Each structure stands twice: as C-alpha cells, then as structure tokens.
Amino acid sequence: MIPPGETIGILGGGQLGRMIALAAANLGYRCHVFAPEADSIAADVCAQFTQGAYDDEAALAAFAAQCAVVTYEFENVAAAPLAAIAPHAPLHPPARALEVAQDRVNEKSFVEGLGGRPAPWAQVDSAEDLRAAVARIGTPGILKTRRDGYDGKGQWRIMQPADADRLELPAKPLIYEGFVTFQAEFSVILVRTATGDVRFWDSAENVHKNGILDRSTVPAAPVILAQVEDARALAKKVADALEYVGVLTLEFFATADGPVFNEMAPRVHNSGHWTIEGTLTSQFENHVRAICGLPLGSTALAARGVVMDNLIGDDAHDWPKILSDEANHLHLYGKAAVRPGRKMGHVTRLVL
C-alpha cells in the first residue's frame, strides 16, 4: 500500500493525466508528470514536471526514482523503454497491457485467444495484402494503421474494391477491418486491484461524430443492457490475463448476434468522464486507489441517469451558456489553442 503523501508519476501530459492528478490530490497524493511537450495541461495541476522523451531511458529512470508508483494516461508510449522504470517504482497498468493495446493486430489476436469476437480483420503489409483482404472480407471496410491511431486518425474507408486499388498505402504496418452492422456502441470500464478485486461502472451508450466521441449516456439503450454481461465477462478475462492494475476500457458494438469487440484502452477513458459527478467513485479516483493499493470505492450511480457531452473545438467557447444552466457540470481542460477536432473539455448533466 502506498500511503497518501507519496508521489504518483504520470506518463503523459494531457487531460486524462490532469484528471488523474486532481483525483490524486483529493486523496492527499502529489503527482509528477513526465511528457515530451513543454506545455502540459496535466503539469499545470501537479507538484512536479519533467520534460523528456518517452524513449529516454536515463530520464525515465531519474523520474521514476522520485515516484512511489508510475502510471500512464495514454497507450501510445513505447513499451520497451519503460523497463527503465522497474528498478525504481512499480508501473501500473503493466507494460504488457501497452504491448497488446498499442498494436491492433496484437490486440485482436489477444482478444480472440480469450474467446472474444472482433470484426473480421486481416494484417496488411503491402498492396497485395490489401487486395487479398478486401477479396476475403469484402467491402465496405476500414484500413487502419496498426499503431498510433486515435479519434479517427490514421484510417481510410474502402467502400468498394476499386478504392483499395486507388489508395497509396502509407509506409506503416496496417490492418483491414470489415464493417460491422450494429445497433449501438458502448464501453465497458472496470477497475482491478493487484489482488484481483474487480468493479464495473455502468456501461454508457456512446455516440461518435467524425470518429470522435460526442456523447455518452447512462443508462444505455435496452439493446446494450442485454449484452453488457457478456461484454463484462470478456473484459474481466482480459484484465485477469494481463494481471492488470488500474482502470481498463473495452469498447464494443451491440449487434444482432451479441457484442463485437472494437478496441481496448489500458487507461482511464473519455467515455467514463461522466463518472466524476455521476457515480459515488469516479474512474479517476478508483484508478488512483487501485495503483496505490487502497480499497476501491463504490461504482454505483449517484443519479437516475447521466449525460456527458464532449466539447470539441469551438464548443468550448459556449461556456457562458453552459454555466447558465445550474444543473450542468463544466470541465475545461486548460488548453490554450482551440483547433477543429480537439477535445477542449466536457459537460456532464445528472438526471435526478
């Protein structure tokens, strides 16, 4: 058990790290952010900040030596250099979770090995591979980079075979996925302790626009509620197989044949931001509790329902209107530059 007063290291300087740090502060911890960018919105609310490259093993070791435990806020951190942390502080979630989640082929193979069902897929390393994948899986489909893609980035829709022939492939490992016919999208968010205690939050129904999460709603539609049990069973298998510690998210499509796995995120997740006001213990607080070895808090709802809307780009300028409704809970992330497609904050409304 790591007692309050100790320092939690956070790899990554974005809004997820910021919200982890705020939750940690409420429990009496100090936080130390490590990120390559000089301008870090997570560092704004932390006691210490180290600017360094994620593959700088000497810098990582010096950072970890100042921390009682280290966590991370996003999965696109190279796993191999993180071995430099191990002699100085435990890393939660484990590096193995990163190795699985940050490569879509590894991720889908891993989940299939546990009995999960992803969309039909094929590894693509050449134009010939793509043509073969399209012939086998069919169209429409999506060609994606195996690594580093998020919020719709690094993706190309292939609506007919001719689209594949016209596409100039990037010099990166790729994966082709067939479209899934679904009624709704939802996420399963759990927290697991080192002793194997697992808690789930209610699954939110998620709506995306332009590849970015737009709204999460709890309770979810009946078609989702009927599939949550099976989805949770798979999520627990994933967490147990990885000996996971912290918050883990799996995203699913609700289909006529049951839940289809989409992707996993070994971290706190945008579709769980509603838990800050909407549950007795948020995903951020329970993540801190888990990585520090504290007892977990209740994940029960604090209201009959919750709606969370992301504030994307210029949406953040509507803060006066948002605050004019006294029932709204506004979270702005402190980002200086507003850009199209950039997550600037979110707003949560409880249904009492």
UniProtKB/TrEMBL annotation:
Binding of ATP: at which residues? 104, 144, 149-155, 177-180, 185, 208, 262-263
Reactions the enzyme catalyzes: 5-amino-1-(5-phospho-beta-D-ribosyl)imidazole + hydrogencarbonate + ATP = 5-carboxyamino-1-(5-phospho-D-ribosyl)imidazole + ADP + phosphate + 2 H(+)
Question: Its domain of life?
Answer: Bacteria
Molecular function per GO: 5-(carboxyamino)imidazole ribonucleotide synthase activity
Please state the Enzyme Commission number of this protein: 6.3.4.18
Q: What does the UniProt keyword field contain? A: ATP-binding, Ligase, Nucleotide-binding, Purine biosynthesis
Return the broad EC class.
Answer: ligase
Which Gene3D superfamilies does the record associate with it?
3.40.50.20, ATP-grasp fold, A domain, ATP-grasp fold, B domain
Q: In which pathway does it act?
A: Purine metabolism; IMP biosynthesis via de novo pathway; 5-amino-1-(5-phospho-D-ribosyl)imidazole-4-carboxylate from 5-amino-1-(5-phospho-D-ribosyl)imidazole (N5-CAIR route): step 1/2
Question: Which SUPFAM superfamilies does the record match to this protein?
Answer: Glutathione synthetase ATP-binding domain-like, PreATP-grasp domain, Rudiment single hybrid motif
**Record-annotated ATP-grasp domain positions:** 108-292
Q: Name one Pfam family in it.
A: PurK_C
Subunit-level organization: Homodimer.
**Function recorded in the entry:** Catalyzes the ATP-dependent conversion of 5-aminoimidazole ribonucleotide (AIR) and HCO(3)- to N5-carboxyaminoimidazole ribonucleotide (N5-CAIR). Catalyzes the ATP-dependent conversion of 5-aminoimidazole ribonucleotide (AIR) and HCO(3)(-) to N5-carboxyaminoimidazole ribonucleotide (N5-CAIR).
Recorded hits in PANTHER family, A to Z, give:
PHOSPHORIBOSYLAMINOIMIDAZOLE CARBOXYLASE (PTHR11609:SF5), PURINE BIOSYNTHESIS PROTEIN 6/7, PUR6/7 (PTHR11609)
Q: Which family does it belong to?
A: Belongs to the PurK/PurT family.
User: Which HAMAP family does the entry link to?
Assistant: PurK
Cite the NCBIfam families for this sequence: PRK06019.1-2, PRK06019.1-5, purK
Q: What is this protein called?
A: N5-carboxyaminoimidazole ribonucleotide synthase
> Which source organism does the UniProt entry give?
Novosphingobium cyanobacteriorum
Higher taxonomy? Bacteria, Pseudomonadati, Pseudomonadota, Alphaproteobacteria, Sphingomonadales
